[in-house]
């Protein structure tokens, strides 16, 4: 589909906390709202893939602190991610948007395996591709996965939707009242300042491959379609 939008193909990363509406598990009302936003973007002709987090179920590092084996806990984290993918898929399909979930851990009954070229094909056909189960490997975060999937499926940019923060700050705005927001920042500076809004590994991978990154807040409603269609919201991180 021809489009006059600045981005033709985008990757959207949604953290797990977004799905839970602040609690453990999935809040269907919240997921429905996100699905509406994503449907709007897909219908505008922008090709879209999504990577979901899983922090609303399990984070490996947290379970490790409470005595669990890190590797097994990370696999639990990855399985949690898949539940978010299925919830999002459900609401999108109800809205008439075609979707495919592809997981990095094979589970043929619920999703396709991760096959990058097929993912691209789905997007070309206007389907929303939802990448689940992270990288399929312990010790990684879904931020890093988002950048890797964006690179491999040749997206124009990677977008991190955040709840509670609306961009990249020089300090954590939830802790430091003097924190100031950047409209733009270079990867080098984001890495040197050890900013934590997105994982350092994700910043590094973006930097090495010159992939533009946008960090923005979910609030107010409608920010997802606005930013994915090219409005300057949040912080642009680039070379
Ligand atoms: N995880 C993993 N490998 C990956 C992606 C995720 O082991 O490639 C595990 C890890 O335990 C992580 C959890 O899945 O804590 C949930 O992912 P993440 O913390 O990135 O989710 P978010 O913070 O975005 O909700």
UniProtKB/TrEMBL annotation:
InterPro entries: AceGlu_kinase-like_sf (IPR036393), Asp/Glu/Uridylate_kinase (IPR001048), Uridylate_kinase (IPR011817), Uridylate_kinase_bac (IPR015963). Pathway: Pyrimidine metabolism; CTP biosynthesis via de novo pathway; UDP from UMP (UMPK route): step 1/1. The keyword Cell membrane does not apply. Keywords: ATP-binding, Cytoplasm, Kinase, Nucleotide-binding, Pyrimidine biosynthesis, Transferase. It is found in: Cytoplasm. GO terms for molecular function: ATP binding; UMP kinase activity. Signal peptide: none annotated. Its EC number is 2.7.4.22. It catalyses: UMP + ATP = UDP + ADP. It is an enzyme of class 2 (transferase). Inhibited by UTP. Residues 9-216 form the Aspartate/glutamate/uridylate kinase domain. ATP binds at residues 13-16, 55, 59, 169, 172. GO terms for biological process: 'de novo' CTP biosynthetic process; UDP biosynthetic process. It comes from the Bacteria. SUPFAM superfamilies: Carbamate kinase-like. Catalyzes the reversible phosphorylation of UMP to UDP. NCBIfam families: pyrH_bact. Homohexamer. PANTHER family: URIDYLATE KINASE, URIDYLATE KINASE PUMPKIN, CHLOROPLASTIC. This is Uridylate kinase.
């Amino acid at each position: 589909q021809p489009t006059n939008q600045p981005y033709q193909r985008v990757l959207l990363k949604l953290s797990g906390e977004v799905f839970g509406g602040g609690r453990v598990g999935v809040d269907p009302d919240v997921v429905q709202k996100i699905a509406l936003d994503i449907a709007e973007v897909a219908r505008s002709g922008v090709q879209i893939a999504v990577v979901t987090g899983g922090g609303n179920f399990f984070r490996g590092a947290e379970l490790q602190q409470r005595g669990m084996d890190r590797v097994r806990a990370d696999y639990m984290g990855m399985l949690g991610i898949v539940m978010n993918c299925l919830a999002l898929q459900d609401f999108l399909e109800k809205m008439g948007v075609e979707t495919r979930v592809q997981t990095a851990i094979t589970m043929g009954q619920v999703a396709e395996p991760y096959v990058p070229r097929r993912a691209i094909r789905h997007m070309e056909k206007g389907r929303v591709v939802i990448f689940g189960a992270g990288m399929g490997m312990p010790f990684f975060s879904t931020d890093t996965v988002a950048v890797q999937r964006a690179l491999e499926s040749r997206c124009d940019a990677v977008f991190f939707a955040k709840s509670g923060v609306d961009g990249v700050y020089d300090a954590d705005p939830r802790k430091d009242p003097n924190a100031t927001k950047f409209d733009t920042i270079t990867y080098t500076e984001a890495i040197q300042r050890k900013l934590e809004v997105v994982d350092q590994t994700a910043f590094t991978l973006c930097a090495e491959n010159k992939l533009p990154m946008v960090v923005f807040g979910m609030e107010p409603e409608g920010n997802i379609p606005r930013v994915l269609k090219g409005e300057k919201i949040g912080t642009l991180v680039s070379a």
